[in-house]
Structure formats: structure tokens, C-alpha cells
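Lecture 7 notes: from sequence to structure.

We start with a single chain of 527 residues. Read the sequence below before looking at the structure.
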Amino acid sequence: MKKLLLGATVALAAVIGGPVAGWAQTLTMAVGAPVTSLDPHYHQLSPNNAVADMIFDKLVNTDGQARNIPGLATEWRVVGPTTWEFKLRPNVRFHNGNAFTAEDVAFTLARLPNVPNSPASYAVYAKPITRVEIVDPLTIRFHTAQPYPLLPLDMTNVRIVDKETVENATTEDFNALRAAIGTGPYRAVSYRNGDRIEFVRNDAYWGPKPAYERVNYRMITNDASRTAALLAGDVDFIDQVPTTDLAKLRNDQRVALSETVGLRLVFLGLDHLRGPNENSPFITDNDGKPLGRNPLRDVRVRRALSMAVDRQAIVDRLMEGAATPAGQFLPPGVTGHVPDVQPTRYDPEGAKRLLAEAGYPNGFRIQLNGPNDRYINDGRIIQAIGQTWTRIGVRTAVEGQTWAVFVGRAARQEFSAHLIGWGSNPDGSHPLRNILATVNADKGWGASNRGRYSNPEVDRLLEASLTELDEEKRQKLVLDAERIAAEDVAVIPIHIQTNTWAMRRGIRHEARNDELSRAQDVRPAAP
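Now the structure, written as C-alpha cells:
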């Protein structure tokens, strides 16, 4: 995985705006996406996960390249065909002083499927476990119905909570800070929804001590405002650097950048829920009348819409090169990448021919929905795609909304086509289980399958991969499932983002390909 860190150390006087009293004690960060909850099990969403990583810990952590490293578990091993054993870190305490033990782990896993109204549940990570065995306070065993090789990987998604504090707590109790008690490097002391979170350092933290005593974590969703706040000295650090500002910031001696190719795919979800003879909510004939069928259930139509997207133009003109055209969920260089699946070639004439073959020589009307404040250039991207679809005869109206409004509607399957993103880990099983698998509450599959895609062969290969302990065979099953979903145009991949952060010169940051913006990854540069 390519990783590039840009920056240098200069005297404090060269920091934007000159010397700032107490700058080494307080860090002010501005992030581009809102945090929707402090409940670490409420919503699988990268902004939430970043903040959760500051407050809570996981049994298995990941480094900047998403490789597994010890967290609250010091080691883990298979002790039987269907049994994993985890040794827990001793002498760890929650922010309230309670000792961390195996009881907290068992409680956390039991909680995952029982969080009310979760828009994208974490239940999938507990489903394979049929029984939790507490051997002693610092040893826990997970029993599964079948061999399950992904259990350590699953644990990188589960933040551990204090049983005593959370046993009767609601998601609102987390947001009110009554239940936001973890073992992490920071403790939340103030939370204003959609505005900011204030943290203080946990000086009793078991791991490396964070550099900053206090953190102001601001949510500035407007791109221009976020960059302006950095240049004015109002904040020290920003994420989701606007692509329109990259060239300017690269040449500004007051600023340092941190960059790496990411794991976030921006893609189009399509309506697979309505049957071939049902109306999709935002598709009509050219006169605006109900079509009487759902054209998106025809793979030729899905393929035509994919061929009509000029990915390279989006990367070059809208993303200013800060992205890579994509034909699948994961980039080259990681385990879940399928080498023979390439981005769909831009071919508007071929797209028109496919539409005609599918019975739509004159196209139809559709609405493309998307957020306008969540992903880099998301509002501009849906406008560009709408224009290219219109050119092939699919007359497209575009509607951008705030993330808070959009994501709720997407979760209720209200759209015909929508733009959204998914930040994976490097294993293809992650998007398969969450995005592409048939929705199955018993298995925890399809938690973020907002288009309700379903393919029995994809499900079969995924099911087989989840019990295959031979890693080479497991990976083949995963890649085969990804390949079939790509050929079936389950979703329309657009591009994989490059993760870019900007900061005052004199600050350094460890870039992460999972794009999480966490205060513990920011430190003063070495003198």
C-alpha cells in the first residue's frame, strides 16, 4: 500500500498565525463528516468509528495499513476446530476506574445485535459466535458452530464497553456521556451533536500516551470553511482536504500534508428490492408516467449505466487526481483485490446499444440521490454522473441532501439510485458481508445493503469462505464471490479515495488507509 507523508519541522514561530500559547497541550481538529452517535455499536460509519477509537478499545487493533495488532487482547489462537482463545491485557481500567475483564467482552458481544434502531448494525461480528466461555478474568474463548477463520478480523470492529456502566444504558445515554466510558486514550467531556466533541486525555491509558492533554474535535462539513479555519489558525488539523485546495496547500510553507491511498470506495447503489414488474420509486417513462417495471433488475441496464460513467474524468477534473478509478471495492495491493476486475471503460455508445437491447431504445427517467456533505465532492459527482446518464438517454434528475437526511432515507430503501461510500478493511469478506450479501438478520448479513442486492451464488461462496481455515482456499472463495458480484453489477463502483489530511507545520500525523481521523495519531513534530 502506497503511503506518503509530507511535512517538515519548523520553529513554532512559523506555525500559521505565529506562536499559540499552550499549543502542545490542546489540539483542535476539524473533520468533514458529522459524528452521528457516541454509542460505538449504533452505526457502522467511519466518523463514528474514529471517535469511538478515541474513547474505547478493541480486542484487536489495526495499524495505519489495517494490519492486525494487539489491543485489549495480547494474543489469540485456535485451541480447537471451532474455538478461539483470547488472552486479555492485565491491569487495564475503564475511565471510571472499573477493571477491564472478560465479563466486559462477553457483555459487549451480547449487546451488538440488541441496539435499537441501528441504521447499520454491528451484529454481523457476533453472529458466528454460538457461546462465550469465560475461562478466567483475563482469558475468554469464543465457540463457533463451524470453523471460523475471520474471528480476529471481526474483533477489529468491536469496541469494548464497561458492563457495569452500560448494562441498562441506551444510545442516548452514550450521547449524554453517561455511558461513554471506555478504556481508550481519551475521555469525552462534552458532545454537541453535529458541532463538536471535547476530550481530555486518559492519563491512566495502558498504551502509548497521547501527545495532547485536551482535544477539540469540531465538525466543519463545508469544505471551504474547513480549509479557511486551518489557514486562519482557528484549527490545527483538518481531514478530507478539499481537492480544489490541494495545489494551494502543497505550496504553502505553513502547512504540512499527510496522504495515503485509502480503502474507501465511492459507488452507486441501485434498487434491487422492487421486482422486475414493480415500479421503482424514482423511475418513470419519458412522459413522467409509471413504467410498470424496474429496469434496474436487468443486468444490461445496470451495465449500461456503469459504462456511461466517465470515471477518469471524475478523478481528473473533480477529484484533482486524489482518487483512483475503481471497478471493485478494494484497491490493488491488498488481499481482497481481484486482479482481473478492472474499472468499466467509458463507452456511451455501447451503453446506448445495451439499453436498446434491454428494451429501452429511448431510455427512461430516473432520479439520482446522494449526500452533499459527506464524501469529497459528493454533490458535484452526482451532478456529473447525472449529466453523463442523460447523454445516453436516461434523463436524470439529481437530488443532493445533507448526510443526516440522506442516510436515513437510504436505510429505508427509498431511492432508485444513490451515491454512497464504504470504508473497508483489506479483506473482501468485509464488503461482501455488509454490502453484497442477501440481507439476513439471523446471520447479520447485509447490514448496509441499502439496495437489497441478492445473488445466491455470491451468498454460497461467502458462506463457504467463512468456514475455510486454509487461507489460500478462503481467499479464492472470497475473490470468486467478489468477481461474480462485479460481473452482475451489484453496485456501480466509481473511485477509491486518496486520504489526505492537512495540518499546521510543526505537527506530524500517521496517515491511515482506513481514513479514521483520531487525535492519538497526531503529535508535535520532532525538533
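The first strand starts at residue 3 and ends at 5. Keep this in mind for problem set 3.
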